[in-house]
Amino acid sequence: MRVTMTVNGRPQEADDVWEGESLLYVLRERMGLPGSKNACEQGECGSCTVRLDGVPVCSCLVAAGQAQDREVTTVEGLSGEDGELCTVQQAFVDAGAVQCGFCTPGLLVAADELLERNPEPTDGDIREALSGNLCRCTGYEKILDAVRLAAARTGQAV
Amino acid sequence: MADQPRTAPARPGTSAAAPGRIPTSLTQGTGSATTKGGIGESTLRPDGILKVTGEFAYSSDLWHEDMLWGYTLRSTVAHARILSIDTGEALATSGVYAVLTYDDLPTEVKNYGLEIRDTPVLAHGKVRHHGEPVALVAADHPETARRAAAKIRVEYEELPVVTDEASATAPDAILVHEGRDDHHSGHVPHPNVVHRQPIVRGDADAAAARADVVVRGDYVFGMQDQAFLGPESGLAVPAEDGGVDLYVATQWLHSDLRQIAPVLGLPESKVRMTLSGVGGAFGGREDLSMQIHGCLLALRTGKPVKIVYNRFESFFGHVHRHPARLRYEHGATRDGKLTHVRCRIVLDGGAYASASPAVVGNAASLSIGPYVVDDVDIEALALYTNNPPCGAMRGFGAVQACFAYEAQMDKVAAELDLDPVEFRQRNAMEQGTIMPTGQPVDSPAPVAELLRRVKAMPLPPEQQWRTTEGADVRALPGGLSNTTHGEGVVRGVGYAVGIKNVGFSEGFDDYSTARVRIEVINGEPVATVHTAMAEVGQGGVTVHAQIARSELGVTQVTIQPADTRVGSAGSTSASRQTYMTGGAVKNTCEAVREKVLDLGRRRFGTYHPAWATAELLLEGGRVVTDGGEALADIADVLGDESVDLELEFRHRPTQAFDLRTGQGNGHVQYSFAAHRAVVEVDTELGLVKVVELACAQDVGKALNPLSVVGQIQGGTTQGLGVAVMEEIVVDPKTAKVRNPSFTDYLIPTILDTPTIPVDVLELADEHAPYGLRGVGEAPTLSSTPAVLAAIRQATGLELNRTPVRPEHLTGA
């Protein structure tokens, strides 16, 4: 089947999609957008987190056909047109929140969405919002630092 | 046909000739005019921006025009004879290009292994554990490959399983490997024992007679999984010369190469390996996974083949941490001094040897912890069983021992009515202490100081979960399950400290290689560093750039992708890479610097006497004297020339442990960390909330303080995981894995993980580059026993196994 959707503001289509393919597979293998990651492919780790019409979802649990005519935002869509990092991306780099980096794309999409709806999250809010995203390297402390830093920088910019 | 999956079309923007999304070199300046970007600074990762934009090329992102997908059929039973394999229907499936079994292996070399070549590339006649590779499929779509594999008919005749010491070493036990003739088979007490290492020093019997208190305990350590997030994956591309180019996530390219090439029947020069982006490792990538399988399929089909495990398969695709049973006896005098330790550590190595012999050596030699004990009687061994193979995981044998000896230290302290930290400090090792192996500790060993520091940190306030409205359940045991608002919740505090060796031990020729070039580009001196070091997330590429800046006085450094065109870097294991490949980069940079200075002397030596007489350095792009006087720009010294050297670096040689007494100078360096855990336990439901996990660690010299703290926090969290949640559950009757998924094997989330304050001590080891100490593993040791000690204090329970489950706390 043919699947058509808007990804990071651009129309995308894929042909010959088998009905069993996930949105994650189609993004990674058919649309050239492998930023969303495949750590578990069973909806437990959050590494494949994308926004579907603005809502964070595990793209491994969304059939590609379910994204037909909808808006998808992936980690590749977070930085600006000129390649400038968004606030959360820059904060992850600066705070040392990236080690192996495999969890990073999903965490960035989730953290970006958190700060959009809650610009001044408490630590408890951050932990709750990111509790669906596993990280095995950092022990999460630097990830908390990064989200706090991004919130502070966003606050200063307003 | 609608339900027939078809392959993806070519990705836009990728050329047909070359694979897509392969690693590129990383070039980094200092990022700021005010910093030098050298060692000791928290410079940022050179791959950080690629990793936050999604552009970093991991091994599962690899792509090639016309590539096929490989899939591995694995055994559904743990121990069985294979009576027949019928691949006919699978081969006839549309879209399938190849189905391979043992009979298709091209040479006489059909096994591989890190130390003992006992692991079949594909099962031959027999499977020895659940999930063993039996056949391979290559197809034009991953689902087609999976469906075809499901059509392969394997007829098994099940055999009895051996799953523990009693069943494996019974006189009539079925042998996991018949006709063993490896270098350990001659000294083990039973063919189902991979390796056994006793250590005897002093006279434990005589010392026991002096003891005022004697404490015994039996302990159980569950099977932990590395649970790296990036699944096993890679891309094998057949080459025109009959060889193969392999892009893969691994921990040691050259060790892989040594195992792969003979099976393929190719010289090592025709198996060209490049490290792809690695999504964590923690020991789980020391053994091969898809490497040989991918190459076999690529060479058979003549097409590039990509293999990516899913999480289910990943649980079968790598070895785990050895589960262990440990029996300890500690004695002490009334004044709080240890008299002796007797212990026996039985590690379950599973069906294949992997790193078991080395894990045994570590468990034995580090079995009494960082304490002074002159009279010891120690035995450690690893079994062959039909359980999943176990091998390397962060902490490598020292983790299981630390869990048990620290529980013992608390028990002895309680018997003596001493504070557990005070008791540890009275027995703490220091520089000059003799290890059970007879080896003196010849660099700082600040065990008492680390305990003092971690105890001195302010305790987190009581009942932090209390809010003006009631309770924030996110900070309570049970969390968002909303199981308590503080009722039945009791706090406990526990301490632990551990000792880990750094680098490969027991006489192994442990070396690393670095190639460094300096040249002038656009008027500026630029260094290029090329090693085969596996960057698995630890930040080796960051410190290599820092070292090159410090040693060569440049700002711009390019890190080349790791591959087998340069000499071996050894493994990203054993907390060794900053010491070893960092040391190799430093060593080569120093040699490059001498060449640059020689060039300078030849070109400019006559202009200033300091060229001949002064100690010269490269700093800020210039040649300067140790007095700070600038003699020339590096760019002028080099001109059109470049200096390019590749050199090996070794740590001090070590010795094997005597097979009977365990004596020998087996280790290179030690690393120490101490933890204090604060927990809150819902004693009614048996739920644990770790409130804080403070750590103090000596790192010798923090080359990158931000990365050091990140390592300590990450290692601490893996220790927390195996304290309260992580365990691969293997059915004792069938030896089958019951929870191969992130749904059933739980690793800590951000809600499970507490704040982790870290106090870093820097006492230089004069034998090591910059005085540094390997960092990565030590925090994984003491974290677990500290959490257990805290839960024991909160509940008064003995708790002799980890992980602790709710039923252990409620008696239900």
TrEMBL record, chain A:
<dbReference type="InterPro" id="IPR002888">
    <property type="entry name" value="2Fe-2S-bd"/>
</dbReference>
<dbReference type="GO" id="GO:0051537">
    <property type="term" value="F:2 iron, 2 sulfur cluster binding"/>
</dbReference>
<feature type="domain" description="2Fe-2S ferredoxin-type">
    <location>
        <begin position="1"/>
        <end position="78"/>
    </location>
</feature>
<dbReference type="InterPro" id="IPR036884">
    <property type="entry name" value="2Fe-2S-bd_dom_sf"/>
</dbReference>
<dbReference type="InterPro" id="IPR036010">
    <property type="entry name" value="2Fe-2S_ferredoxin-like_sf"/>
</dbReference>
<keyword id="KW-0411">Iron-sulfur</keyword>
<dbReference type="InterPro" id="IPR051452">
    <property type="entry name" value="Diverse_Oxidoreductases"/>
</dbReference>
<dbReference type="GO" id="GO:0046872">
    <property type="term" value="F:metal ion binding"/>
</dbReference>
<dbReference type="GO" id="GO:0016491">
    <property type="term" value="F:oxidoreductase activity"/>
</dbReference>
<dbReference type="InterPro" id="IPR006058">
    <property type="entry name" value="2Fe2S_fd_BS"/>
</dbReference>
<keyword id="KW-0560">Oxidoreductase</keyword>
<protein>
    <submittedName>
        <fullName>Carbon-monoxide dehydrogenase small subunit</fullName>
    </submittedName>
</protein>
<dbReference type="InterPro" id="IPR001041">
    <property type="entry name" value="2Fe-2S_ferredoxin-type"/>
</dbReference>
<dbReference type="Pfam" id="PF01799">
    <property type="entry name" value="Fer2_2"/>
</dbReference>
<keyword id="KW-0001">2Fe-2S</keyword>
<dbReference type="InterPro" id="IPR012675">
    <property type="entry name" value="Beta-grasp_dom_sf"/>
</dbReference>
<keyword id="KW-0408">Iron</keyword>
<keyword id="KW-0479">Metal-binding</keyword>
<dbReference type="Pfam" id="PF00111">
    <property type="entry name" value="Fer2"/>
</dbReference>
From TrEMBL, chain B:
<dbReference type="Pfam" id="PF20256">
    <property type="entry name" value="MoCoBD_2"/>
</dbReference>
<dbReference type="GO" id="GO:0005506">
    <property type="term" value="F:iron ion binding"/>
</dbReference>
<dbReference type="InterPro" id="IPR037165">
    <property type="entry name" value="AldOxase/xan_DH_Mopterin-bd_sf"/>
</dbReference>
<feature type="compositionally biased region" description="Polar residues">
    <location>
        <begin position="24"/>
        <end position="35"/>
    </location>
</feature>
<protein>
    <submittedName>
        <fullName>Xanthine dehydrogenase, molybdenum binding subunit apoprotein</fullName>
    </submittedName>
</protein>
<dbReference type="InterPro" id="IPR046867">
    <property type="entry name" value="AldOxase/xan_DH_MoCoBD2"/>
</dbReference>
<dbReference type="InterPro" id="IPR000674">
    <property type="entry name" value="Ald_Oxase/Xan_DH_a/b"/>
</dbReference>
<dbReference type="InterPro" id="IPR036856">
    <property type="entry name" value="Ald_Oxase/Xan_DH_a/b_sf"/>
</dbReference>
<feature type="domain" description="Aldehyde oxidase/xanthine dehydrogenase a/b hammerhead">
    <location>
        <begin position="53"/>
        <end position="160"/>
    </location>
</feature>
<dbReference type="Pfam" id="PF02738">
    <property type="entry name" value="MoCoBD_1"/>
</dbReference>
<dbReference type="InterPro" id="IPR016208">
    <property type="entry name" value="Ald_Oxase/xanthine_DH-like"/>
</dbReference>
<feature type="region of interest" description="Disordered">
    <location>
        <begin position="1"/>
        <end position="41"/>
    </location>
</feature>
<dbReference type="GO" id="GO:0016491">
    <property type="term" value="F:oxidoreductase activity"/>
</dbReference>
<dbReference type="InterPro" id="IPR008274">
    <property type="entry name" value="AldOxase/xan_DH_MoCoBD1"/>
</dbReference>
<dbReference type="Pfam" id="PF01315">
    <property type="entry name" value="Ald_Xan_dh_C"/>
</dbReference>
